[in-house]
Amino acid sequence: MTQHLSYLVLGLGNGAVYAALGLALVLTFKSSGVVNFATGAVALYAAYTYALLRTGELMVPIPGLPATVDLGSPLAIAPAMAISLVAAGILGVLCYALVFRPLRAAPVVAKAVASIGLMIVIQAVIAQRVGTGLVSVKPIFALDTFELGDSLVPTDRVLLAVCIVGLAVVATLVFRYTRFGTATEAAAESEKGAYLTGLSPDRIAFANWALSSVVAGLGGILIAPLVALNPVAYSLFIVPALAATLVGNFASIWLTVAAGIAMGALQAEATNLQGIYDWWPRSGTAEAISLLLILIFLVVKGRPLPDRGSVIHRTLGRAPRPDHILVPVLLSFTAAVIALLATTGSYRAALVSSIVFGILGLSQVIVTGYAGQVSLAQLTLAGVSAYALSVLNQHLGIPFPVAPIMAALFATAVGVVAGLPALRIRGLPLTVVTLALAVFVEAFWFRNPELNGGVQGAPIDTPRLFGMDLGIGAGESYPRIAFGLLSLGVLTVVGLGVAWLRRSSLGTDMLAVRANERSAAAAGIDVSRTKLITFAIGAFVAGLGGALLGYQQTLATPEPYAVFLGISLFAIVYVAGITSITGGILAGVMAPGGILYLLVDRFLHVGDYYAVLSGSLLVVTVLANPDGIASKLPRIPWPEIPRRGAVGAAPAEPAVTRARGDRSEPILTVRAVSVTYGAVKAATDVTFEVCPGEIVGLIGPNGAGKTTVIDAVTGFTPATGSVTLAGRSLTERPPHVRCRAGLGRSFQDVELYDDLTVAENVRVGAARSASELPIARRVTRTLAVLGLDELADREAGVLSQGQRQLVSIARVFAAEPAVALLDEPAAGLDSDESRWLGEKLRSVADDGTGVLLVDHDMELVLTVCDRVIVLDLGKVIAAGMPEEIRANPEVLRAYLGLPADSDIPDPDAVPELHTGPLTSPEVLR
Ligand code: ATP
Fold first, then answer.
1. Distance (Å) from CA 699 to ligand 1 centroid
2. Which of 706, 748, 856 to mutate to test the pocket of ligand 1 (most atoms within 8 A of CB)?
3. Which of 527, 556, 814, 908 is least enclosed by beta carbons within 10 angstroms?
4. 727 contacts: CB under 8 Å, gap ≥ 6
């Protein structure tokens, strides 16, 4: 028992560093929304500065100047620490001033990529200045021990943890009791919030960046005597630190610090168990702790779909639809073949590397660019494939081409597992999970001597087909043209496949999921399935790239698949253009070891400065053009080939009359639906029916529960009671199944796919209908009916509010639902536009569609609806014909918030009771 305890105490050292870095991450995130991947590098910088000061030298981090200045004699602990912390603080201020302040309004992903660029720059500057060798640092705390049962445990770990906990206490007090703290908390909510406290958000951010760098630096300095200084280990501290920060939800200092310390302690215990149990894995269990902690915490807390009102940031640029690809593909293919033939030696090798990295770039385009899942594990999946290829070759004797395909399929299986957390979490937490998974796989497999083939690596056979040698060759013949052509062939097939994917309905589903998961589900898209398919396809493509990388090196070794290279690959693809095929391929050109790398190295003679330059370039590109280089490439005007079934090509048709059975028989039956949110009873025993062709109004004062009822009926919120559509029970069914069964819905906050065009938005809605009419016709007809045909090719993100409303309604009706549930479709329309919309709704209903209409525009509801249901405080308080509702005293009381026994005002007052805002007239066309 005491042995376990003493290991737990030993782990406090690392735990304290995770906690310190976690604290630093929270500070920068709160004040500027940046997930600073460079936090570990800042700690490294402070630790190196300190280590050198203690030997009497000052590191000069400016390339061109002497690397160090001799101070004559070593500095004592206190001045060395003070100077190092000031240096770290200045570094933090510079980071904010030069990089993150200009990026204030940029998407979270852009900021994260910039921080990756900074991480590369800081690491490279240190390596260029003082080398990458291990540096030992004299103890800071006295080398005492204390007894814990039978074991002697060093006190320095405990003191280190106490220091960091002390720091956390101070930080908490500052945040709770000072104006600066309140202002930082307010700035975390919104910039305006910070202004209300009387402090400028800019100053708050500057102060927090300085503070966070000092905290990270302190962690780095204090751990330096315990863990020998080395750039990679320090930078990797960021992964458990991020895990701790996630536990604290990027907000709670206490949870973050506690999680960090606990993680360090548990990691040490995992190492202890290695020595006790034979079956305990030799490698990777410490890394598994961070992964498990995040998974348990996030997946349990996560939800299959984001909650109503979750902020949806547009984080990635538009993914262009590749329409005429034949000529560019032929031209590029020919150019690449000529380049391969015309080059030899290192130039051809660099070309081959670029081709292989192009494949890996495309895998990132699929997963992140199309489906919006920011995965940092794509290069790791490539490594999984390379190692699997070795096993298939060496242990199972499976040859080319079956082996690489099987290896890629194995990577696919791992990719699907990597994608499982995405079913419950999204955005940043998902990114961190993929990173933790990559770290785990690297430690558990790639660096595990029992599994990785030892120091000489895991050998991979030369690929041969019908006796033909397709290998990279060796010696004089290296690199053989045959391998270049093989890789080019794979890249071409993958490129065409990705182009097909973007044009397919699966591709549109991915973009819909990327843009907005809730409305994707409302359009009948199975969000979970789409995400898993995305991870599977992305992993398969990464697996193909990994197998080729393995063939290129003739063996599998850990280095090419290292986690940090994976992060750099993501950053390069992002900069090249993560949403387009051109961007993916361009990333190959720019990748380390690729053709651009070689050309810069040969002709610009940057030598040691390559990493510094490439990191800086990354930052500059993100600053100058967050959408990626590919979006700025000149568009070559290839001849337009008319698309079959393109929107606008088919003539507008009159609406098809769909009599859906007996119009007096309810098609939608909702019985005793109740919803509670914590202590709030948002809906209680709500019961109603909708018949085909009937428009039923659902009204009530603000907060009455109208949206909750729509959410419950369409499956977006857990509810009790039953929902039956055309005799089929939909109770307990997920949203996309309800949609496919014929329940359409729109959202109060008009959740459109801003990256897609109007026609594509409507098309997503139309795709999953049981209607026999072809999709393109339904799209055209719906656009024409709602007067949107001229906007068909316009991106939804640029539309006016009124136009957005209409597109969201068009998306519902294009599916020809049995019943459409419309949540405030007239919000943002003026009274004329509202009336016009009412007529359109009437004509759609006349075709047989049942409509449940929630709106604050009483005039619209009372004129267009056949029946009206009134909700108040979650309960149905009245139901009847519009004229009955108009005169109902209960309704008037509810709307005016009068007590039950009060006098009733003039019923004619009701139409004026707009409880929601009716904004100024918006241009509809
Ligand atoms: P409005 O007309 O303002 O849109 P509404 O009639 O649609 O209001 P709901 O939005 O359904 O009303 O809200 C009903 C009640 O449930 C309100 O008290 C609201 O604060 C509460 N509520 C809604 N969503 C949640 C949630 N996710 N968590 C907690 N409470 C919620």
1. 13
2. 706
3. 908
4. none
The predicted pLDDT at position 635 comes to 56
Q: Give every CB contact of residue 721 below 8 A, 6+ residues apart in sequence.
A: 670, 671, 672, 673, 674, 685, 686, 687, 712, 731
Whole-model pTM: value is 0.82
Determine contact, residues 523/530, Cβ cutoff 8 Å. Answer: no
| Pocket mutation for ligand 1, best pick of 303, 680, 821, 857 (most atoms within 8 Å of C-beta) | 680
Q: What is the torsion angle, in degrees rounded to the nearest 10, for the CA atoms of residue 169, residue 173, residue 175 and residue 180?
A: -130
Residues with CB under 6 A from ligand 1: 307-308, 677, 680, 682, 700, 702-708, 748
Calpha distance 183→197 (Å, rounded): 6
**Residue 571: what are its φ and ψ, rounded to 5°?**
-65, -40
Q: Ligand 1 atom closest to Cα of 700?
A: 6
**Which of 823, 822, 780, 829 has its CA nearest to residue 803?**
829
Predicted pLDDT at 831: 80
In sequence order, the 6+-apart residues with CB closer than 8 A to the CB of 825 are: 746, 805, 808, 809, 837, 841, 853, 855
Structural tokens at position 763? 């098309």
User: CA-based Rg of the chain, rounded to a whole angstrom?
Assistant: 31
Those residues whose C-beta lies under 8 Å from the C-beta of residue 516, and which sit 6 or more positions away, are 312, 751, 752, 753, 754
Q: Which of 681, 698, 707, when mutated, tests ligand 1's pocket best, judged by the most ligand atoms within 8 Å of its CB?
A: 707
Q: How far apart are CA 649 and CA 780, in angstroms?
A: 8
Cβ-contact 559, 435 below 8 angstroms: no
> Which residues of the chain fall short of a pLDDT of 50?
311-312, 638-661, 907, 909-925
Helices (H), ranges, 178-252 = 179-189, 191-196, 201-223, 231-236, 238-247
CATH top-level class of 668-924: alpha beta
Atom of ligand 1 nearest to the CA of 856: 2
CA distance to 389, 474, 607, per residue, from 553 (Å): 12, 10, 24
Question: What digits encode the pLDDT tens for the residues 704-717?
Answer: 999 999 999 999 99
Q: CATH says 2-297 is which class?
A: mainly alpha
Q: How far apart are CA 25 and CA 39, in angstroms?
A: 7
Of the candidates 399, 349, 395, 404, the one whose C-alpha atom is nearest the C-alpha of residue 550 is: 404
Segments making up each domain of the chain, as ranges = 2-297, 326-562, 668-924
